Amino acid sequence: MNATGEPLPAQSSPGRSGQRRDASASLCSRLPGGPAAVVAALLVLMPVVLPSRTMATEILIFAMATLACNLLLGYGGLLSFGQAIFFGSGAYLSSLVMIHGGFGLLPALLTAAVAGAILAALVGALAIRRTGIYFVMMTLAFNQTAYFIAYTLSDWTGGDNGLLDVPRPSPTLFGVTLVDLSDATAYYAFTAALFFLIFIAVRKIIASPFGSTLIAVRENEARAGALGYDTRNFKIVAFAVSGAVTAPAGALYAMLLNFAPLENIQLSMSENIVIMTVIGGTGSLLGSLLGAGAWVIISDILSEIWPRWLILTGGALILIVLYLPGGLWGGVESLMRRFRRGGGTRRTPDGVPENAGAAHPME
């Protein structure tokens, strides 16, 4: 923070990017009950409308990882292809402490979160020494290094076979089992509750002076530094928060599958997380849930139609980038704007409502 302790304005200069994000915040605030209520409604509806509770749980797990990636990419401007490091590490570490250390569910998740934060802070501290394409290449290199370490330590990770027999312990209080997580519905409910808490926490972070300054660093790092902000520390903290969210997601995924596959820490996992972030919409927390849901559902449908289904998903991603640059949430925003235009709302020449302009982009 600078000497005055005041947060830096979120946008370094007015423009279409700033207007679009301000409009996004305004639109989100007009949703019935606010974004949190919308997420809560979706969490209730998902197990009802989706084919299985397992699919619904998988969507929420990847939505957690996408939220963490969105914090870096959408709000920090940091395109990281190292998210699988934290996802896979969380899966392995939580599994090992449960198998060999007798840890319960909550201590295992907490261990994964702390380890993920520390590991992400270390990776971030090294990667942010470079910018642009060199930063991206650094995260790629770290991901490949982590993959080969996991592959080499086969006695601990299981190598190609993955770490088998990962338990799914039920939470207890004074020796009394609170809920039996062996049931798919109960495990979904637990994952949904955790996702909702993480969603609220990330929203609070984005709305805080830290989040506002992080956005300012993304918009104009030189100006933020000139005003006295240590931009390096802000990026490292963003990495740490991202790792603290991604690692428990990996732990939950290992418990869902009852084993931790080597693919969790592969570069392809990082790619999938970034793709889900782009599909949903960068800079949109609601979009993180939409992107994860779209990816899991489309992958499940297309994989049953054609063995080379990734070609089709690649085509779908191209169409989204070309015609929905704001992702799925950007498309929702566009529809909401058209609806409001029909209601006679006065707008600027750029198509933004005149009264749009939240202090902090909430989504």
Largest sheet: 2 strands, antiparallel
* CATH classification, class level: Mainly Alpha
Q: Which shape, going by the Cα principal axes? A: globular
Number of domains: 1
Give a verbal description of the structure.
- Helix 3 (53-73) packs parallel to helix 8 (184-207) and helix 13 (285-305) crosses helix 15 (327-342).
- Residues 1-26 and 344-363 have low confidence and may be disordered.
- The protein has 363 residues and is an all-alpha fold.
- The longest helix has 27 residues, at 231-257.
- The chain has a single domain (16-342), classed as ABC transporter involved in vitamin B12 uptake, BtuC, CATH 1.10.3470.
- Helix content is 69%, strand content 1%.
- Strand 1 and strand 2 (176-177) form a beta hairpin.
- A two-stranded antiparallel sheet has the order 1-2.
Helix/strand layout:
Layout: H1 16-29, H2 34-49, H3 53-73, H4 83-101, H5 105-127, H6 133-152, H7 154-157, E1 172-173, E2 176-177, H8 184-207, H9 209-219, H10 221-226, H11 231-257, H12 267-280, H13 285-305, H14 309-323, H15 327-342
Antiparallel strand pairs: 1-2
Helix pairs in contact: 2-8, 3-8, 3-11, 3-12, 3-13, 4-5, 4-11, 4-12, 5-6, 5-11, 8-9, 9-11, 12-13, 12-15, 13-14, 13-15
